[in-house]
Amino acid sequence: MSEPTPLDKAEKAVRAAETDTAAVQLAMAAMELAKLTQQQAQAPAHTCQHPQPRQRRSAGEWLGIACAVCVGGIGIAFASLALAILGGTAAIVALILRGMYEDYRKGR
User: Fold this and answer.
1) Mind listing the pLDDT tens digit for each residue in 79-99?
2) CA distance linking residue 39 with residue 34, whole number of Å
3) b/e map of 33-70 (b: 16 or more CB within 10 Å)?
4) Which of 51, 58, 63, 66 is a good FRET partner for 39, with 20 to 30 A between their CA atoms?
5) Reported pTM
């Protein structure tokens, strides 16, 4: 058998390229089809518009809420006590000033 000429080699390469091109085009079309079907499968058919129910609180969250309420209650108690002391002090000062004013008016 004789060795192929450069023209025969070129013709063989063209045929191979033609078949490779068709195979590549077919593979690309199959990949595009697979992508399209995957996107359609991932797209939800119907989306719900109603709100989802809330998650239940954990024990740690309830403990934190209870501690916050206790600290707030103690703060309110101290504030009430401070207001009571302030009111009592203001009453005592008012009585002392009234007594001094009465003494001043009588000329003592």
Assistant:
1) 999 999 999 999 999 999 999
2) 9
3) eeeeeeeeeeeeeeeeeeeeeeeeeeeeeeeeeeeeee
4) 51
5) 0.42
